[in-house]
Amino acid sequence: MTRILVVEDEFEMAKGLQDNFEFEGYEVELAKNGTEALEKVASFTPHLIVLDVMLPHKSGYDVCREMRSKNNNTPIIMLTARGEEIDKILGLELGADDYITKPFSVRELLSRVKAVLRRTPDSDGRSPICQIGKLTLDFDQLTAHDVNGEVELSHKEFEILKYFVEHQGEIISRDQFLDKVWGYEHYPTSRTVDNYIVKLRKAIEENPVHPRHIITVYGIGYKFIR
Ligand code: CA
User: Fold this and answer.
1) What does the alpha-carbon distance between residue 46 and residue 38 come to, in Å, rounded to a whole number?
2) Ligand 1 center to residue 211 CA distance, Å?
3) Following DSSP, what letter does each residue of 94-138 receive, concatenated?
4) At the topology level of CATH, where does 129-224 sit?
5) Where in the chain is the domain with CATH 1.10.10.10?
6) Among 65, 71, 76, 141, which residue carries the largest CB count within 10 Å?
7) C-alpha of residue 11 to centroid of ligand 1, in Å
8) Under CATH, to which class is 3-119 assigned?
9) Is pTM beyond 0.70 here?
10) Distance in angstroms (rounded) separating the CA atoms of residues 145 and 128
């Protein structure tokens, strides 16, 4: 199900949007300020964010800026309170995907949401196909291809890549991998993680010696960039 995070401090407005989105079949969570928004981005991992600009404490601009600086590219539609050109330009410069000026019709917002989701096929919640470096992956069929044909990857390797994709831009420690991908009942060493990464880099990276997608964060672990 496609997940939408609505960030809006006016409760009536937020609730109204939630009802409308849920009616359209989206799964919705609400955040009422910028700090909560960033928490929900991490916990709810939305496919799209409807982000009000005027929020208490942290503005919508701040939220957008912080997410993009962490390489989080979740699509954002900004709700600007005023029709001022400066707001729209600032929002788009900070990396928002679209904006809509209050007051707006819900139908207009819904069509913008659909348009933005269409432009981001990896995040529409349906497409399991994902391009990572040289590889085209299908996370439903568990198949991988590059220009030379099918590439054999193990189930564990798909799990690692999926975890990377779901946490792109974040620093992931080796312990986090061991916990989330292997689980507590197994006891591989952090060396195991490194061995898997070496193999995955060979499959993905144009130049595995200078990786551009699976980056080593010295002393901690890895960071994935699409
Ligand atoms: Ca507001």
Assistant:
1) 11
2) 42
3) TT-SEEEESS--HHHHHHHHHHHHHH-GGGSSS--EEEETTEEEE
4) Arc Repressor Mutant, subunit A (1.10.10)
5) 129-224
6) 76
7) 9
8) alpha beta
9) no
10) 14
Give residue 161 CA to ligand 1 midpoint distance, Å.
Answer: 37
* Dist. CA 186 → ligand 1 center (Å): 47
Which one, of 146, 138, 64, lies nearest residue 99 by Cα? 64
CA angle 6/12/17 to nearest 5° reads: 40
Q: Is 25 helix (H, G, I), strand (E, B) or coil?
A: coil
CB 136 within 8 A of CB 147: no
Strands 171-173 and 221-224: antiparallel
pLDDT tens for the chain, 226 residues long, are 889 999 999 999 999 999 999 999 999 999 999 999 999 999 999 999 999 998 998 999 999 999 999 888 899 999 987 666 666 677 777 888 888 988 899 999 999 998 888 777 554 444 567 888 899 888 878 899 998 899 999 989 999 999 998 888 889 998 888 888 887 666 777 788 899 999 999 999 999 999 999 999 998 999 998 8
φ/ψ (deg, to 5) at 55 = -130, 155
Pairing of strands 129-132, 135-138: antiparallel
Residue ranges near ligand 1 (ion) with Cβ within 5 Å: 9, 52, 54
Q: How far is the CA of 43 from the centre of ligand 1 (A)?
A: 22
